[in-house]
Amino acid sequence: xxxxxxTPVDPAPSVPVGGAVGRPVDRRDGHAKVTGAARFSAxxxxxxxxxxxxxxxxxxxGTITAIDTAAAVAVPGVVAVLTHLNAPRIRPxxxxxxxxxxxxxxxxxxxxxxxxxxxxxxxxxxxxxxxQTSVAANEAAPLVTVTYREQQARVDFAAxxxxxxxxxxxxxxxxxxxxxxxxxxxATAQVSVDLRYTTPGLQHNTIEPHATIAVWSGDHLTxxxxxQSTDASHKYLAWRFGVxxxxxxxxxxxxxxxxxxxxxxxxxxxxxxxxxKAVGRPVRLALSRKAVSRAAGGRTASTNRIALGAxxxxxxxxxxxxxxxxxxSVGGLLEAxxxxxxxxxGAKNMLTRQNLVEMDLLPNTWLRxxxxxxxxxxxxxxxxxxxxxxxxxxxxxxxxxxxxxDPTSGKKFSQRMLREAFxxxxxxxxxxxxxxxxxxxxxxxxxxxxGAATAYHPVLRLVADVKVRLSNDGTALVQCGFHEMGMAxxxxxxxxxADALGIAYEKxxxxxxxxxxxxxxxxGNSNQTxxxxxxxxxxxxxxxxxxxxxxxxxxxxxxxxxxxxxAAHTPFLEASVGSTSxxxxxxxxxxxLATFLKDQRWSKAARGAQFCEVRVNADTGELRISxxxxxxxxGHIINPKTAASQLRGSIVMGIGMxxxxxxxxxxxxxRTMSAGLxxxxxxxxxxxxxxxxAWLNEPDKSMPLGIIGLGEVxxxxxxxxxANAVYHATGRRIRDLPISLDKTL
Length: 745
Ligand code: MOS
Known about the structure:
The protein is an alpha+beta fold. α14 crosses α15. It starts with a strand and ends with a helix. Mean pLDDT is 94; it is low at 7-11 and 97-103. Bound molecules: dioxothiomolybdenum(VI) ion.
């Protein structure tokens, strides 16, 4: 029997039966997290545990010709130093795992760590020290000396851009999309802008850095890993290590933030499992922040041309967005930078193209609102610039171009209340008080500006297997291998299950974060809540049918479900959606396809209106954000407290992107210079104003309970709203993020 993560029961005042959905109940994982009771991946105890530290390559491209580990081995407490010369051989990465045009692969890169002498980026792990203590491992790792045969490397994004080629793929988020003749329409437009925007690379900087504990017992592997994809990760590890998937268990009960950075299996996880196999003892590999920056991908930098043409009364006739982003030579992901441009405004002629350039850098990966975070900065800044060209209110310009159907696909919107979001937001924020002239509002030495932008993130639903058990003591247990990364994932599913079963919220327990449970979806692309809810609702409906049938038999119709079970001397009843059997997994794939095709009938998205007020010091250029409002169109809200928290957290991330965050790569050698919080500037409390978030709470009729994923939409439009407000305050248009002091002066 295995044990799974259990949510403690909420100590909050009792929630009325049938009324859990829509209530602001506390996060179930909250208490454990703030009191230190939660155990994160690196915090599990095993007798005999060893500690590992990786050694990173210091060239961007080449071959290891010699590697000297003698000094490291001699450090007291060192158990082993593994390199490509002595590490266990494991199955190479399947090349097919890298699907750049569709999304990041489970294998973050194609590199066979410690099984190859080839180096593909500065920072690639090339050895690992295993020791009795982390102190010994950290002392020994820098003593490994490596000799390389270096090759010419492509590490300067600015210099490589001429090598970019259009990304392939014909899915809505990839490649090139054309409608009419946008260049011709732009050339003849009454009013137009043709602009260039850039964004830097970004890093996730989750509270909990990447960490793994790997434990082999015979040919069974248990991995505590901070991951947002236990199911994909356990299958991947099973394949790499050549054991059946049932013999690999990936556990991630608590995840201290992920934001897309913990979807792929990055080198630390594979190397920990490899090291544990080599030394025959459990291995803990907890990456330092510097190591995370060198060995786990972040967001690509981008360069974008955007051109908008319009009639004098503000109707878009041309929309062109041409973006360049980079991937690694051994993996990476196409950032869907055109995503907002393809779905937001009804331009007659459109051309959106995403170009990729391959570089000898750590492959990029998902980072919150991949594509949309960049694309919404570009599009929403340009819309503001066009509004000024037209001498029109920037919100009016947006509303004048509200499309009746999706501008690219022509599909109907399942839900679209952007107009209502802007109307309600403008009212609440006091947009009418804004004098539209740049540099017209002042408060002493502070120039005051107000900016707005549209938020946009598409809806994705994957597939989840769920098992629900109702016991005759009145409690229920929901099991699904989904992920709790701090967004109240388990809390909202307990709310949903309680109402679906007609029992008290406090009676529902949820188990998650474990590949031994019925497989859940990866937590990413804001899919998880709606995906799991789809299956929880189906399983609860099946269970309710079973209870009703039993009630009829026992003559207990109308009584609470547990009374029926007791009357029938039945300890519990269960219902499942999907299963882990081969047939069940085929069935799950079928369900995924059916849902996917159903969802494809609509253009579905989360949207919102971002409003901000900034103050820029007229003498020093210091930028302060003084007010924020996000008014969202994100479907039916299951838990107002945790939804507000998600939206607010995303806005904070957007503020970081706008004001200070950037991955700095040395253009001479490809080394990340901003590895660690001393050189990568995250916003701190003093940077964040009170953030007002609100929503329309209109259910999306095409989704279970009207749910629209809202994890990522909050980040979109944020950087543009700030840049637009800075322009309004100062008359200075900043087209290159971050908006640092040197640019506002
Ligand atoms: Mo999502 S890219 O996992 O925040």
